[in-house]
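Follow-up to my earlier ticket, as requested here are the two runs.
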Amino acid sequence: MKYYKELTELQCFTRADVERITGNAETANSLLTSYQKKGYIESVKRNLYVAVSMETNQAVPNRYRIASHIADGAYISHHSAFEYYGCANQVFYEVYVSGDKRFAQFVYDDVVYRHIAPRISVGVDEKPDGVRVTDIERTMLDSINDFEKISGLEELLRCLELIPRIHEDKLLE
């Protein structure tokens, strides 16, 4: 458990992160194998791992933090961003992830992670909790544009009703 504290602080990490912590590639490989067998970490997908809490036996990071680390530049979008901001009427068991790097859809902890190709590149914020997510104005535009694929008109309208305020200049941008 020598490196467990560092891994729980990272929450989500790759093999390269473990190599940086241990200082050796072979040690990193051995550590990943050993910690997975003991249940200290779990593999989310190829080369993406999460630390597991000793108290709850659940992944330390939430679904949004995991999605933000799926690939370089990945961020939460569409209905999942509404969920993150607390503006969603329903919680889905899907997380919509955008970014330049595509990935194959996968399931981790009963949540489906789906890639949606971005149409614009502005309006992405990194929050203090380490989550990259579209701002509320970009979320509105993405969701309106793709409502038939994501959540449907009724859910979209309910999400829009829950938005406290928007910045018109960001919306026009």
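Run two:
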Amino acid sequence: MKMWKMLGCLVLLCAIICGCAALATEAKVEEPGTTNDGGNQGSNDPQDLVSGENENTPPVSGSVVVTPTYSEGLRFRSNGDGTCALAGVGTCTSSCILIPPTSPAGDTVTEILPYALKDSIVGAVEIPTTVKTLSAASFAGCERLCYVRVAAGSEWYSEYDGVLYSADGKTLIYCPSGRTAGELKLRASLVRIAAGAFAECKKLETVVFQGSTAAWHNVIVGDENDGLYAAGFRFSS
């Protein structure tokens, strides 16, 4: 009796295995983005979703464009000529601010006024390519600011080691007062440090000039830069 039961189980197991194999053979694996009738439903490739390409458009290297999310609630002052200036943080509560190139009213943001970020919690800020007028005073009173970034393509400004420079890298405009890194590297192309650039830097420990000793002696340092003189100084070359 036991032998017959075992044989029955083996026959049943074989039938199950054969059935599964038959189902697997009949199943069709569909191409991504197509239906059973061959109709194109659009690609599911993440690259295509970002760049807007599909299987009929060959992907182009470097075509991915990420749209930045600009900060909202910032306060602007219109100049009445289609341009405006960032005047304050307004209702924005973000600690990382991306200044938009255009205000909610449609004016092009070309300036950052003095004390625009005063007494805010801003720790990092990105300056759009449209801004062409600012100074160290634009960031005065922003004690938590530790990093300044300039949007790619700016004709007016650049950044190096989180510090704001003129576009050609010859003038250091502002070193964030909340900078926590003890060491700061200065560009070898530096020829001038603006007045007040280091006025509020109290945590700076070491300054490393990327150029030669002779080049440093030709650098013009403006007034109110006690934070620079209080730090240790050395040359990388």
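The only thing I checked on run two: The chain has four helices and 14 strands. Let me know what else you need.
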